[in-house]
Design brief:
alpha/beta, 2-enoyl-CoA Hydratase, Chain A, domain 1, 2 domains, eight-stranded mixed beta sheet, 14 helices
């Protein structure tokens, strides 16, 4: 299991807690020690992770063990049927999508998908979609509107793939078309930033009525490394760029870019995927209940007004 230097103290405590849980299952006398350790772990996690710098939060959002879209679908949805291909060129494994049941509702789910290990990362293109990935998403968004199904999206990408082939096949047009289809959809849409959200490649799945971000997720027009390389011709100044970009969850909430932050378990989402999925699921269910009270025209108008308000200020 990959461990970042700043999370090592928490990981050690969580490992010890896991050992105590196993022992407490057979010895009731150890439950008091387990409860004390759980409190200490939660306290230390709040203290340590409350002091993380923006670049450390970016690193956490990219953590190799962080749960991906399919990890959440496995825990939140039943009757998952994946639909593949854009019906034009190919199937892009960097975006997964299909139909499922979420807590009693039929929904359409679309999300970025990274891989674990070299083989799967190559298959998923490290979570960087080609145009056909966005055209697959468009096909699913239109399917959702046809059958009046809510849309749940999960965002976790460094950005759309910038390769020559992707540009030749119309990368920017595909992203723009996805944004347009989401903007005019007459069904509830909730987007969740579960890891990193980079540039238009993230926005193409994020034009929603409600946008959530996990506590250590990030969302930006460009990565800190890319920003530093462009502004200062020096990628090593990524930490400085991260400080200026305002890409962490509290900044995003303060700026009105996201509507809500979903707290992560002590040590991050990857330390307790089941708990993280339950927390995210409860939030998604609550928001869907709210949005289902709006009519089709109201949903589209609310989404339009939400995005029109971004970046506005009183002089």
């Amino acid at each position: 299991m990959a461990v970042l230097s700043f999370e090592r103290p928490i990981v050690e405590l969580l490992t010890r807690m896991g050992e105590l849980r196993a022992a407490a299952a057979e010895d009731e006398g150890m439950r008091a020690e387990l409860a004390a350790l759980e409190l200490e772990t939660a306290r230390l996690a709040r203290e340590l992770f409350g002091q993380l710098t923006p670049i450390q939060k970016v690193q956490l959002s990219r953590h190799a063990n962080r749960p991906y879209t399919l990890d959440y679908l496995e825990r939140l949805c039943t009757d998952w049927i994946e639909l593949r291909g854009d019906r034009r060129f190919a199937d892009d494994a960097a975006i997964v999508g299909g139909m499922a049941r979420f807590r009693g509702r039929s929904v359409v789910v679309v999300g970025h998908q990274k891989g674990r290990g070299t083989k799967e990362n190559l298959k998923r293109n490290f979570g960087m979609p080609h145009p056909e990935g966005y055209r697959k998403a468009i096909r699913l968004f239109e399917l959702a509107e046809k059958f009046r199904l809510p849309i749940l999206t999960f965002i976790d990408t460094p950005g759309a793939y910038p390769g020559i082939g992707a540009e030749e096949r119309g990368q920017s047009e595909a992203i723009g078309a996805a944004i347009a289809v989401m903007a005019r959809a007459r069904v509830p849409i909730v987007a969740s930033i579960i890891g990193e959200g980079g540039s238009g490649g993230a926005l193409a799945l994020a034009v929603a009525n409600r946008v959530l971000v996990l506590e250590f997720g990030c969302y930006s027009v460009i990565s800190p490394e890319g920003c530093a390389a462009i502004l200062w011709k020096d990628g090593s100044r990524a930490e400085e760029a991260a400080n200026q970009l305002k890409i962490t969850a509290p900044d995003l909430l303060a700026l009105g870019i996201v509507d809500e932050i979903v707290d992560e378990p002590p040590g991050g989402a990857h330390q307790d995927v089941d708990l993280m999925a339950n927390r995210l699921g409860d939030t998604l269910e609550r928001l869907l209940v709210e949005l289902e009270k709006l009519g089709p025209d109201e949903l589209a108008e609310q989404r339009y007004q939400r995005f029109r308000a971004l970046g506005s200020f009183d002089g």
